[in-house]
Each structure stands twice: as C-alpha cells, then as structure tokens.
Amino acid sequence: MILHDEPRRGTRAEYPHADRSVYLDTACIGIVPQSVARAVRDFVDQVQQVPADSGTAHHGRLNKARDAARPRVAELIGAQPQDIALVESATHGLNVAALALPLESGDVVAMADTEYIQMGVTWSQLARNGVKICRIPHQGGEITVDTIDRYLDFDVTALALSSVQWTTGYRADLAKISEMCRDRGIMLIVDGAQHIGAVPFDVSQTPVDVLVSSGHKWLNSPFGTGFLYLSPDIRSRLHRPISGFFAANPPARTWGEAFLRPDISPFQEFTYTDDARAWETGGTSNYPGGVGLSAAVKLILDRGVDYGWECILSLTGHLLEGLRRINVRIVTPQAVDSRSGIVTFTTGQNDSDVALAAYLSEAGISVSVRYAGGAGGIRVSCHWSNTAADVDRLLDAVRSFSPLPAT
C-alpha cells in the first residue's frame, strides 16, 4: 500500500491550495490542477492573437485542440475515440442519452432511490411518452446485485445506475450487473460522475451501453466539460439527433475546404458520421473546456489510474479506521470491493450533521452534507492529492466537535 503521507510525484505542486487548507470535497467540485489551468490560459492567449493565415485555418486548429480530449478520455475508460462524445456535464450527457434511447410507451426504466437528483429529473420527464419508472430500494445505502436482480424481473427495458452512489459512496458491482443486463437484453446506462478519475473502469472489460461523466469532479477539469460514451452496439439503435454540421460529412477533406467551393449549398444531401460525436452539439463548442478536459485526463493518465486509486484506497482506509474510534456511525459500506473515494458518516441527527460540517468549514476543512432516499450524512471525498495529514486534521476536528456524544 502506498504511504499516503509522502509526496506523490509532484502532486502537491499541482494543487498549491493543499498547504493552506484541507479540501475533502472533490465529490462536489474538483480543484483544477496547475497544469490544466495553464493549458486553458495558453489557449486563451492563443485566441487573442491574430492568426498568421486565416480565421478558417485558425478555427480548424481550435477544433483539433478540443478534439484531443476524445482519445485521452477513450484511453482512460478502455474505449475507442469514436465512442466518445464531448458534452458539457453528466446532466447534458444523460439527457442526450435519454432522448436517443429507443424507449417507447410501456417501457420501464429501473433506478435506485439513492440516485443523484438528475437521474429522477431526466427519466421522470419521459413519463409524458408513457415510459414508466421502477424504483429500486437501497439496503443500508447499498444497491446490491441481489436487489437489482429481483427488480429486473419486472419487464425492465433499461437500468439507469450510478456506478458510485453520490451520498454513500457505495460502488456497485458493475461486472455482475453488466452480465445480468446483457443476459436479459436490458440496456445499461451508467452515471460515472463519482467514479471516473478516482476508480479504474474499463468498458472493454465491463461492457455498458451508455456511460456519462462530468469533468469538474474527479477528473479535475474546468466547469462545462464532460463526456458521453456510446457503445458501438447501442449506437445503431439510437434515435439520431438533429445534428450540427460538424456531425455531417463535409463534401471535401474538411469543412474549411468545402467552404471554398462555389457549389456548396444548404440544400445539398447530407450524410452523417456514425461516431458518438454525432450526438454532440456539432457546432462551435466549448473549446477552452475541451482543452482543459484533455489536459486534466492527461494528468491522470500520466500519474497512472491504478496509482491514483491506490492512493485513494489507502486514504479512505485510514479515514475509516479513525472514524471507528469516534462516536459516529459510518454510512459508507466498508468492504473494499464496494469502496470509492467517498466516505460518509453521521452523528445520527441531521441538524447535528449540518452543524458539524459548518464547524469543519470554520476550521478550514471542506466537506459536504448529502442525503438521498434517507441515506447520507457528512460526505468526505478523499482525492489522490490528499494526504494522511489531511485526514488526521479532519478526525481531530470531528473529535473536538462539542455536540458530539462522548464515547
């Protein structure tokens, strides 16, 4: 196990705030590393310069800079670049997927009662089309394979599941759930916002139909970034969106070259790419965000996904060990196979949890309070940039919180 209080390959230099405060709230908002901020600043500097050739050529370079995020995201999750669409958030990706999936009146989407609020917002709006929602109850904050297995017997068309639950940090057994869905012909839609960037995940080993993730949490990318993975098998079944022209195949090598031809017309017959990018906006897009996402994922790849996960696993283990010695109740399932970067605990009362979080904030320690389906409490996010000393400061502050019952 990695010694979680030793410097990690220059990690602390990427996060200068780390020496001034204890940030344990990545599950809410990740901190943008120095190298990512520098990449975005360099991009902004670039677009302030008059291009040496033409605006058209300049625009082409901007497209390439943004598009560089696709192969890096693909490498991160074991996919191919053509499987990746760049979106502005997990919410954006989830909504695009919901509209694209071949769901009809009478179809059933199953989801857990501890899911992120956007899951409910997205799927409930399909009720106007006759799509039904099947509620899967949690058991102690866990959404187990056995529970899902029982509910998938109710003529379920699709399962929408967060691979890591946002309130409890429970990590689902996606390998078994994926196999179960494939055996029954059920579409599997995964929200990986609390998973990707913290815990390794490979879609070539664990197939899913759809995977969405925001960029501003564990990927430490700027706001307004994220990705949508669409498997090759599901893409042929999806409703085609009203695409932007970048999703159309240009009548020349590039659209820039096509614009030079006198016969170009908005009434010509268009053909479209079959790649996942067809489900992007398809026009001039969030270029600074794409550049930031590309740099953020590169940093994770350079450091090593497995290495980062080992750091996180070590830190969460250290935190759980300390919490067991304090008079609080640990909400997060503690089995290693169910762990993530999130550890949640509670004093047993909501008002006391809120007061403790405020007390920690005053002490320079950032955490969140989150609940869903009756499960939750004080949510602590252990990022790979944190150290054991950060965790110890949290534990010391929790012990000193006066309303906390004595052990």
Structural features, described:
With 407 residues, the chain is α/β, with parallel strands linked by helices. The chain has two domains: 11-24 and 304-400, Aspartate Aminotransferase, domain 1 (Alpha-Beta Complex), CATH 3.90.1150.10; 40-300, Aspartate Aminotransferase, domain 2, CATH 3.40.640. Helices cover 36% and strands 14% of the residues. It has 14 helices and 13 strands. It has helices spanning 11-14, 34-47, 55-67, 69-77, 90-100, 117-124, 145-151, 174-184, 232-235, 255-258, 287-303, 305-323, 350-362, 388-400, and strands at 22-23, 84-87, 108-112, 132-136, 158-162, 187-191, 210-214, 226-230, 329-330, 342-346, 365-366, 368-372, 375-381. The strands form three sheets. It has a seven-stranded mixed beta sheet with strand order 2-8-7-6-5-3-4, sandwiched between helices. A four-stranded antiparallel beta sheet has the order 9-10-13-12. It has a two-stranded parallel sheet with strand order 1-11. A hairpin with a 2-residue loop joins β12 (368-372) and β13. α2 (34-47) runs antiparallel to α11 (287-303), α5 runs parallel beside α6 (117-124) and α12 (305-323) packs parallel to α14. The longest helix has 19 residues, at 305-323. The protein is globular, with a radius of gyration of 23 Å. The model has no long low-confidence stretch (mean pLDDT 92). It comes from Streptomyces achromogenes. Residues 22-394 form the Aminotransferase class V domain. InterPro entries: Aminotrans_V_dom, Aminotrans_V_PyrdxlP_BS, PyrdxlP-dep_Trfase, PyrdxlP-dep_Trfase_major, PyrdxlP-dep_Trfase_small.
